[in-house]
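TICKET #2291
ISSUE: user wants both folds in one file
ATTACHMENT 1:
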Amino acid sequence: MIAAWREPRPAGSPPVGRHDWLLVGGLEAVALVEGLARPDLPGQPYVTALAMTYMPVLLWRRRHPLITCLVGFGIAGALAVLQIVTRSEALGLASMMAILIPLYALARWGSGREVVAGVTCVLAVAGLGLYASAATLATVMGSIVFLLLFVTVGTVVRYRADLWQRQEREIRNAERLTLARELHDTVAHHVSAIAVQAQAARVVAQTQPHRAAEILGAIEAEASNTLTQMRNMVRILREDEEGADTAKLGVADLSALSRPDANPAVEVSVAVELTHLPRSVDTAVYRLAQEALTNAVRHASGATHVAIEVSRVGSDVRLRVVDDGLCPPGMRARPGFGLIGMTERAQLLGGSLTACPGPDGGWVVEAVIPAGSRG
């Protein structure tokens, strides 16, 4: 109850639109026709004029739900009092049932305080009207249930919309994380290679100009590859999911990471039986291998060799990336964006990832992903 009392108004209430004006115009016409058809109704023509005056107030039912509701039921309460004083028949038109619309709007768009205050006033006015008409107990109970029905419908619609908004936010957050992983895995790998080769070019530029030219050519190739990957990513983001999947790299593309003449040298070994993997698993293995290789090139001190091995272990796919760099005893992986993204990517497919020093030195990254996972 306390949480409901403190609940703020829902965000994103739509502005007054064409359908609102059509609603008000239709109710105005109904009130006018009913007034003309019932000239003998007590209080004519004033009750008709009162009803037609109230209808435009409905335009503000979302922005000012409590005021709109209180105005409508305030009119109903005033007519009930007048009925009791004059001891006459029921005053007002049937078209004044339109006051139930802001009751729904109150539950849908009002704050917790407004809903509690509004519903309390509505029930009080309803009780006054039932007293004026000398209603039976069954009528009283039925009327209360009828009013609370509008409140319930408004509340249900409100919380369904809130649930949908939360789901939308979660989807957007998941998409941001996916995009962040893709950007990191794709761009960081190639930029790291460019940086390493640029450093090498600076070292040999003075003593081995021909070697520097070769390295500059490799840098140009890496830059072109990076640009191609970025363009592919933009295209993937613009296309639908089915079309995007066809552009993603997988296990079959790991051979492109092999660089036997580079420093460190990169060796890739892929088991023959690793075919027809689910697209999500296929892409994840490639991205994990790419990111692990990037980390080895960047951080493996003194590394001369990096081995990428992909094999089948039972119903799982196992990826191992091992370098021969210097690894002080007790060294632990620092949870940077790369390692966090790799762990998330593996866990999303029901797998696991470890990164730790190897028994023979160097660093070992191992990921195990169920081969039947679906993305």
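ATTACHMENT 2:
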Amino acid sequence: MPIAGEVGVLINPTAGKGRAARIGDGVLARLAAAGVSARPIIGRDGDHAEHLARQAVRDGAGALIAVGGDGSVHLAAQALAGTDVPLGVVPAGTGNDVARYLALPRTDPLAAVEVILAGRTKRIDLARSGSRYFVTVLAAGFDAVVNERANAMSWPRGQMRYNLATLAELRTFQPLRYTLDLDGERVETEAMLVAVGNGTSFGGGLRITEGARLDDGLLDVVLVKPLSRLGLIRAYPGLFDGSVVEHPQFRRYRVRRATIAAAGIVSYADGERFGPLPLTVEAVPRALKVIA
């Protein structure tokens, strides 16, 4: 069904080193050519952009289109969760994992706009901690530390940034002591990382929660038990094809609610700083309508 009403176009001017800003003009032009009324939403920073997105939804936007990466989708999800307003995605960021989930064109922004104009929608789950939502994966261990370093790097772009950050952190990282509550089951363990997946991947296609589904009402909580540095390096390629799930040190739990505690870790979700542990995360079934 074609989009009805004015569309808000959330443009992250910094995503993809400015690529999203350049693409945004083309998105607006294509929507206008198709007879769709569109309003650009460009915030001074993330908080301001989220405020403007929420206001657009309150004002009756027919859809919200995120032009950027997973961070832009993350902002849009805060405004759209629990509403009937659909999210469209024009991938223009570094990771673009949500675009992978939705099988959207990731190298041709205008092709992604054509998907949006077709207007086919479905509902997917979200994960929530407190009042904040995420779409992809919550990283809460070695993966979070890598995210912290990667986000501080200005070069290179894309997956290689995460690869270099991984190699840098391998020099000093030690297993962490975790206490988990998984649907009431208490788990105390040492691990290299713990991740909570609503979707299957993060960091530009690292498939840490391979097999997670966006429509099952469950979270995939995975952990990797202690490995040597060499063992971690050998296991790392398995993140690209999902075979990491077959590693003997890999554990998976499918739950509706998880509490994760470990000292000194700041978690990341959708590639964005999310909050220090401990955190409680719960699945929110069918919370987000998406155009796919």
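RESOLUTION: both attachments delivered.
EXTRA DETAIL ON ATTACHMENT 2: The first strand starts at residue 7 and ends at 11.
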